[in-house]
Amino acid sequence: MDEYALIMRHEDGMKVASPEQLQIWMKQTMDWIGGIAAQNKFVSGTGLPFENARVVDSRKMVTNGPFGDIKETIGGLIVVRAASVEEAVEFAKGCPVLQGDGNTVEVRKIAKDDGIH
Questions:
Q1: How far apart (Å, rounded) are the C-alpha atoms in residues 110 and 44?
Q2: What is the model's pTM?
Q3: Which fold, 2-109?
Q4: How far apart are CA 56 and CA 22, in angstroms?
Q5: Cβ-proximal residues to 7 (8 Å cutoff; 6+ apart), any chain
Q6: CB neighbours of 57 closer than 8 A, spacing ≥ 6?
Q7: What's phi and psi for 108, nearest 5 deg?
Q8: Number of helical (H) and strand (E) elements in the chain, helices listed first
Q9: Share of the chain above pLDDT 70, in %
Q10: For the segment 103-112, what is each residue's pLDDT rounded down to a tens digit?
Q11: By the 8 A CB rule, do 25 and 17 touch?
């Protein structure tokens, strides 16, 4: 079984939700992850807060925040075990992040050290 990263992308990371809305989203996300964990397919995960973030570009220029020139930000990721990319995509389809207009979940196979990717 392979591992896949489900990368949660937000269309506009600058939007600020109310504390109540954040609580609702957090519960939905924990329930979603709990469903994956109940199948013994959850490996790990983390949120990526916007505070104290920096971007270093190819010229070694440093800018504040994860925003740069794009509207989209990565809000977090989880790693799941799946028999195929299609199974990982099915997990991604249940992600509460997808409730936001323009939000996406990118599914990427995690490279192994076995030389076969």
A1: 13
A2: 0.83
A3: Alpha-Beta Plaits (3.30.70)
A4: 29
A5: 74, 77, 105, 106, 107, 108
A6: 63
A7: -135, 130
A8: 2, 6
A9: 86
A10: 899 999 999 8
A11: yes
Phi, psi of 68, rounded to the nearest 5 degrees: 50, -135
Q: pLDDT grade, residue 114 (50/70/90)?
A: low
Residue 37 clears pLDDT 90, i.e. is over it: yes
Q: Are 2 and 81 in contact (CB under 8 A)?
A: yes
pLDDT: is 20 or 64 the higher one?
20
- Output 75 or 80, whichever has higher pLDDT: 80
CB under 8 Å to 25, separation ≥6 — which residues? 17, 96, 99
- Of 58, 67, 53, 56, residue with least CA distance to 10: 67
pLDDT at 66 over 80: no
Q: Tell me the C-alpha distance between 29 and 24, whole Å.
A: 9
Tell me if 41 sits within 8 A of 81, measured CB to CB: yes
Asked whether the beta carbons of 2 and 117 are under 8 A apart, the reply is: no
> At 51, which amino acid appears?
E
Over its C-alpha atoms, the chain yields an Rg (Å, rounded) of 16
